[in-house]
Amino acid sequence: MPFELAPLPYAADALEPYFDKATMEIHHGKHHAAYTTNLNNAIAGTELEGKTIEDILKVVDKFTPAVRNNGGGFYNHNLFWSILRPAKENNAPSGELANDINATFGSFDAFKEEFGKAAMGRFGSGWAWLCVNKGKLEICTTANQDNPLMPGVGCEGQPILGIDVWEHAYYLKYQNRRVEYIAAFWNILNWEQIAKNYSVVK
Ligand code: MN
User: Fold this and answer.
1) 165 C-alpha vs ligand 1 centroid, how far in Å?
2) For the chain, what percent of residues have pLDDT higher than 70?
3) What tens digit of pLDDT does each residue of 66-100 get?
4) How far is the CA of 28 from the centre of ligand 1 (A)?
5) Which DSSP symbol is given to 7?
6) How many CB atoms lie within 10 A of CB 168?
7) What is the pLDDT confidence band of residue 1, given thresholds at 50, 70 and 90?
8) How confident is the prediction for the chain on average, in pLDDT?
9) What is the CATH number of domain 95-201?
């Protein structure tokens, strides 16, 4: 079975006013769709056909740039949509994840500051991640559509939360103001899903 583009788990306008409908439609329906199609084309007829996306990412350094870029793009956006949801007031983690964020970074606000700095500091296109690396929470960033499951990217572990800092993720609404896009992001995080991701890999 080739990889398929899953529908967004909410309406394209459900994240308004933080992430606008037009950006969501283009980001999912055009960008993510293209990564999916191009991944299928890149692995067609190779030994990667039929493997899970996680297994492909682990050995991606042995294959073409098309596998790397589109495999990363396919996986990264699946994770991204899944950790978002319509806005909630006082949106914050709870339970064990909240405790471990506080213990690791000092407080939830300190975590947000450090994560935001990482996302701002990624020059050009890429992603910032919250990962579980050998049982510990860590923040790191990757270029392009790389991610922590790929070998040798200087950012290791299982990502449980990520932000897309490609301009296609924010330019229509925020233009050059990545800092405002990152500030908006905190309102629409699905902390229950992120806690689930955490419980599986910690
Ligand atoms: Mn994107």
Assistant:
1) 7
2) 100
3) 999 999 999 999 999 999 999 988 999 999 999 99
4) 8
5) P
6) 13
7) confident
8) 97
9) 3.55.40.20
For tokens 């079975």, the residue is 1
Centroid of ligand 1 to alpha carbon of 113 (angstroms): 22
Per-residue pLDDT reduced to its tens digit, 141-161: 999 999 999 999 999 999 999
Residue 140 has pLDDT above 90, yes or no: yes
Distance 190 CA to ligand 1 centre (A): 18
For residue 41, give both structure tokens: 């084309």
- Ligand 1 centroid to Cα of residue 32, in Å, is 7
Cα(99) to centroid(ligand 1), Å: 30
- CATH fold, domain 21-82, is Helix Hairpins (1.10.287)
How many Å apart are CA 110 and CA 29, to the nearest integer?
A: 35
26 CA distance to ligand 1 middle (Å): 10
**Structural tokens at position 21:** 């409908």
Q: Where are the domains of the chain?
A: 21-82, 95-201
Which tokens sit at 117?
């700095």
Identify which of 2, 7, 1, 64 has the alpha carbon closest to the alpha carbon of residue 36.
Answer: 2
pTM over 0.85: yes
Residue 152 main-chain phi, psi, to 5 deg: 75, 25
Which DSSP string do the residues of 35-91 spell out, in sequence order?
A: HHHHHHHHHTTSTTTTS-HHHHHHTGGGS-HHHHHHHHHHHHHHHHHHTB-S--TT-
Peptide bond into 17 cis (omega under 30): yes
